[in-house]
Amino acid sequence: MKQIFDFDAIKKLIAGQAPHKKPFNVVFDALHGVTGPYVKKIFCEELGASNDSALNATPLPDFGGEHPDPNLTYAHKLVSVMKEGKHDFGAAFDGDGDRNMILGKNGFFVTPSDSLAVIAAQSNLIPYFKQNGVKGFARSMPTAGAIDRVAKEMGKEFFEVPTGWKYFGNLMDANRLSLCGEESFGTGSDHIREKDGVWTALAWLQILAAQPDISVEQLVTKHWEKYGRNFFTRYDYENCEDAAAKKMMEQLTNLLNAPDTVGKEFLDGGRTFKISKADNFSYKDPVDNSLAENQGIRILFVDGSRIVFRISGTGSTGSTIRLYGDCYEPDLVKQKMDAQVILKPLINVALQLSKLQEFTGRKAPTVIT
Question: How many CB atoms lie within 10 A of CB 315?
Fold first, then answer.
C-alpha cells in the first residue's frame, strides 16, 4: 500500500499538519472481520489515527453476533458514531474485507456508485495511477451510471458488465481496466485482481489529503455539480415464491417483446417516463468472446432513468427479486433532495410495469438500499 499511496500526505491530513489547518478525525468499523488487524496496523500505527478509531477490530468467528455487511443497516455502530458529528471520515468493511462503505461527517452517505465515480474523477491524485496511468473504467450493469460520464469526459474506455467480479478480472488481465465497482459496495483497481475495501478507504483519504479543508460531502457535491447526480436505490424482496417470481419475469419478458413498448409513456409524481429501450442484458466479453445472456431485464427511459429487475437465490428458501432504480439529475437544487423522494415516481412505474405486488403479494420490500 505504501507503493500505491503517499502515506506521509495522509498522515498530515489526519494529524492536521500543514497544509491542513486542523486534525481530520477518522473512524473504521471492521465488523469483527478480517480487516481488524489491518485497520490497527495501517490506519492507527502507520497513519497516526487514534486507537479508538478502530471499531469492532477483533476478528470473531461469529462476527460478534452481527451481520458483517458494510451498509447503513448492519454497520449501524459506525453510522451512529458518524452522526454525532465528531468524525470527518468513516469506513466500514465486510467480513473478508473486499467490500466497503464510505461515510462523511454527520453520517453523509456516499453511495457505491458515487464512490467509484469520485475516485475515477480524482484518480490523478493517487500516486499509483499517476505512475501507471488509467487504462479504463467499468461497473456492473445494475450499478448507477455515475462513472459513465467520468469515463466519457476523460476519454477512457468504459465497460458495463454483468454482475460477477470475473468479468472485471478478464479486463484487468487484458490491461484494459484500472478501476471498477458494483452497487453491492465492492470497489477495486488493478493493483490486485479483486475488490479491496481497505484500498478504497485509502484512496478516499489520499484524495482528501490533496485538497486541504474539503469535507467528504463537499467533495461529492462538487462532483455532482460537474457531472450531475445519479440517484440510486435497490429494493430486495426476499424469499418470494419461485412461481410468483417466474410469472413476474414472464410479464416483463412479454413487455420486452411487445412491438409498442418503445415509446410508451407513464406519468407519476408530475414526471413523464417515456421508454427508449427495453432488453434482457447480454454481454460479449471483449477478451475471450464468451457470451453472457439473460443477465437482468432493463427498461431505459428517454430522460436517462432506468429500472432493472434481477432474480437470485432460487431454491428451497424461495427467490429474491431485486429491483434497481437509477435516475440522473443535472439540476443543482434537486441534487440535494432525498434519494427515495426523487426515485419514488420511477419505482412506482417499475411496480406498475412488472406487477410485482400483484404476483408476489408483497406490499413492501424486505430491504431498501
Answer: 7
User: What CA–CA distances, in Å, run from 176 to 116, 126, 154?
Assistant: 17, 19, 15
| Rounded CA separation 102/199 (Å) | 12
Residues 6+ apart with CB under 8 A from 331: none
Residues present in the chain in total: 369
Give Cα 145 to chain centroid, integer Å: 10
pLDDT single digits (tens) 127-138? 999 999 999 999
Three cell numbers written together for 204: 478516499
Question: What does DSSP say about strands 157-161 and 179-182: parallel, antiparallel, or unpaired?
Answer: unpaired
Q: What are phi and psi of 52, to 5 degrees?
A: -80, 5
Integer CA distances (angstroms), 54 to 32, 109, 229, in order: 10, 19, 32
DSSP 99: B
- Distance between CA atoms of residues 32 and 123, nearest Å: 30
Q: At what angle do helices 112-121 and 146-154 cross, to 10 degrees?
A: 10
- The 8-class DSSP code of residue 353 comes to H
Helices (H), the chain: 7-15, 36-38, 76-83, 112-121, 127-132, 146-154, 165-173, 197-209, 216-227, 242-257, 339-354, 356-360
pLDDT single digits (tens) 298-334:
999 999 899 999 998 755 578 999 999 999 999 899 9
Cell numbers linked to 242:
419461485
Please answer whether residues 337 and 327 qualify as being in contact, where contact means their C-beta atoms are separated by less than 8 angstroms: no
Q: What is the pTM of this model?
A: 0.93
Which cell is 181 given?
465497482
pLDDT given at position 73: 86
